[in-house]
Design brief:
It holds the Pfam family YibE_F. 63% of the residues lie in helices and 8% in strands. Helix 8 runs parallel beside helix 12. The protein folds into two domains: 297 residues, no CATH class; 91 residues, Beta Barrel (OB fold (Dihydrolipoamide Acetyltransferase, E2P)).
Length: 482
């Protein structure tokens, strides 16, 4: 069964003024919890905001050129394999030595093609083709790097990927906006805001030695508040999902802090970790791993909480007379299916990112238990387990909050509209007689709501929309007869 992502209030129901008033009251009740939490998060963010100073951080950027050396770009005209020994060779040794790959490249700045030596690992694993645009190191201005010295004057650095990456990003944005429309556009803007928080707050904070647990919690909470409200709007559904997300985030943070310490996740054997340690004594590799454990699960956590919140509302629209217990049970049927699929999502996402390590471990032919707890794989294993536990616990909590909110506002809405459970069809602007009969049938048959719970959120939304259209058609027909 697929999982729908028709999140938020999509306007499927025709709300009466009384309903709108009670929904507003629900938002105020949720605000009593969320506003102080938001203020506390903002204050913590201001107090922990990085100074931007890099004092005590020493590093040599591999992209900083020495005097006389430049980084140039160009398009490959031809590729050849020749002896790695360039220039005049001793008598009797001509043609000896290993073979290297060279790319005759036309510089973008103009001039004659230059002979760029391609790194052996690139030549062997991927290779270069005619028409590729590359970035290379121009050593021709450095003394000793001359064609007759035997040292290469032009060395491959990287491919220039600007065009394909930009095209892919544009295609992604077009597809998202075409399918999700305005909400998709807002989600993309929210994603940009999330990365802004990551780059301007979390990463500099880690460099300056800020407390990693607080840094990750505060930054992640700010990201979730911005992303959820900006993409899905201010509503009781979104606020409910936010509460569930923050709960799951807290559980994930506590488990991550415990697991990082108990499992001794120190980044041992990681080249990037060793580089960071040598840059500054303030940088904590364990702290960086802790932040990574928390941040890595944000996307999936956000997805399941907003879906679960929407599922409760859609089920309620189908059967507003259902008891809270029954509504919770039915919504959790959807939640359990979502748990099963998202657990696979997390596991395979991390497995895909760690494929090179997995291959190396496989070739070492080590016992499975030893491999999974090794320095190479333990971080990925802990990340998967911690993220999955936080995700699983967030679903029932989100469902419970959503049920309490929707039942509290829904009961008052029925009372305000003068609607009784057994005479729902008599309320102006509510269900038609046919829909009231469907509601009574749902109440009479314990299996009916469970059948709706087997649908995903998008399918539920379609059912609600169909009913709304039928009610609207009957209303217009009644007005025409009068």
């Amino acid at each position: 069964m697929g999982h729908g992502h028709s999140h938020g209030n999509n306007g499927h129901d025709v709300a009466t003024p009384e309903a709108l008033a009670y929904r507003k009251r629900a938002n105020w009740l949720l605000a009593v919890v969320l506003v102080p939490l938001g203020v506390l998060t903002a204050v913590a963010m201001l107090l922990m905001w990085p100074s931007g100073s890099r004092e005590g951080v020493t590093f040599a950027s591999p992209y900083a050129a020495a005097p006389g050396v430049t980084f140039d770009t160009g398009r490959i005209q031809s590729v050849v394999e020749e002896s790695c020994m360039q220039g005049p060779q001793p008598a009797g040794q001509a043609g000896q030595g290993s073979q290297c790959t060279f790319a005759f490249t036309e510089p973008d700045k103009g001039g004659s093609p230059v002979k760029v030596v391609i790194n052996p690992d690139v030549a062997k694993s991927h290779g270069v083709d005619v028409g590729d645009t590359i970035r290379y190191l121009n050593l021709s201005g450095v003394q000793g790097a001359s064609p007759g010295s035997g040292s290469p004057s032009y060395v491959f650095v990287d491919f220039v990927r600007s065009v394909p990456v930009v095209l892919l990003a544009v295609l992604y944005a077009v597809v998202v906006i075409a399918v999700a429309r305005w909400r998709g556009f807002r989600a993309l803007l929210g994603l940009l805001g999330a990365y802004a928080v990551l780059v301007s707050f979390i990463l500099p904070g880690l460099v300056e030695g800020k407390p990693p647990l607080l840094l990750a919690l505060v930054g992640s909470t700010v990201i979730m508040i911005g992303v959820l409200y900006f993409a899905h709007g201010f509503s009781a559904r979104t606020s409910t999902a936010l509460l569930g997300t923050i709960f799951g985030l807290g559980i994930t943070a506590l488990l991550a802090a415990w697991a990082t310490d108990v499992a001794n996740l120190a980044g041992v054997g990681n080249h990037d970790a060793a580089t960071l340690v040598n840059m500054s004594g303030q940088i904590s590799i364990s702290g960086i791993i802790l932040c990574g454990l928390i941040i890595s699960g944000l996307g999936v956590l956000n997805d399941v909480t907003i879906t679960q919140s929407s599922a409760v509302w859609e089920l309620y629209e189908l059967a507003p007379q259902t008891s809270a217990r029954k509504l919770f049970t039915s919504a959790m049927r959807i939640g359990r299916d979502h748990i099963a699929s998202t657990v696979y999502t997390i596991a395979f996402a991390y497995a895909g990112a760690a494929l090179p390590i997995l291959i190396i471990v496989m070739l070492y032919d080590r016992p499975v238990a030893e491999a999974l707890t090794s320095a190479e794989l333990s971080e990925e294993v802990v990340r998967t387990l911690v993220g999955s536990i936080g995700l699983v616990l967030a679903i029932p909590v989100t469902t419970l909050i959503a049920v309490l909110v929707v039942k509290a506002t829904g009961t008052k809405r029925l009372a305000a509209a003068g609607t009784q459970p057994d005479v729902a069809s008599q309320s102006a602007g509510t269900q038609s007689a046919a829909d009231a009969g469907n509601v009574r049938e749902l109440e009479a048959s314990p299996q009916s709501l469970d059948a709706y719970a087997s649908l995903d959120t998008g399918e539920l939304a379609a059912v609600v929309e169909t009913r709304r259209q039928r009610r609207e058609a009957e209303r217009r027909a009644a007005e025409g007869r009068s």
